[in-house]
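#structure-requests
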Amino acid sequence: MKAAVFHNQEDLRIEEAPEPTPGAGQVKIRNAYAGICGSDLHVFFDTANAGLDFTTPHPVTGSTLPQILGHEFSGTVVELGEGVGDVKVGDRVAVWPVYYCGECAACKKGAPNACTKIGFHGLTSHGGGMAEFTVVDSDKLHVLPENVDLRLGALVEPMAVAWHAVARSEIGAGSSALIAGAGPIGIGVYFALKARGVETIIVSEPSEGRREAIRRVGAQHVIDPSRQDLGDTVRELTGGDGVDAAFDAAGVAPAITSGIAALTPLGKLVVVALHGKAMEFNPTQLVMGETLLMGSLGYTQDDFDEVIRAMSDGVYDTTGWVDVIGLDDVESTMRELHEGRGMKKLVASTD
């Protein structure tokens, strides 16, 4: 079968790979679409510092390079392994791609998304979504309702990243929020906030293309922080109180410092983006407002269910920010995204 196979830094090959067969408790999926994620870019362009150790077998999956990419993906069940009874051939599914140890402190606390040995199908496993077929354990599947198509299904994973971050904030209906960054995760945060009934959502994004993209899906209060005063906008839209929650979906230091400054007393700042550089800020800012600063990593199975339910309810809109490419275009598209060109790209895994 045809697959996008990562061999090492800046070495991605479209090549033939063995077609997998499901074992006991597993299913074989004909992949439909797989998203290119920021994690894929980190791995491709800076393998040694991507947060994953590719020099030894993965501690949970045992996988090593080369690796089929694609951990944000959807497809159709085409074959069942022995003992599988919770899904059937023909089901259209999104895949929760997490592998976890079940033994570390995070796993014992019921947070496999923060497992200290975490792995992902399509990054550190025996297969991935950027291939014609893959095999996964049946308990990783989330069946899509009839009104959620396979393109939306491939977006469940990144939208669940954003959903988990918003859930961490515990923000509720009638509240206000700030999103720093209007890339795919920032757009996902916007949708999750709307689903929770948040009324005032301010978006700070220096890229004109990304500002236009989030406006197209309904955002009204979108500013360019390089030309407009974010503080003035926050004060105007919140009656001087500040926002209840702020979300760093940009991964740059000003997203955190401006987010803290924008918060109401007892507000929460959730860091959902990965930062490539260290930063400094004065913790007194946290003390004076009793501000809560927290991180958000990945998603749970419940987050997948919540996102799919919201998709079925019509919360999500892909207008203007999602494009489809072929397997042969994966590397060139990764280079475009790395240069800041484009938004969300889904790879059609079959012709």
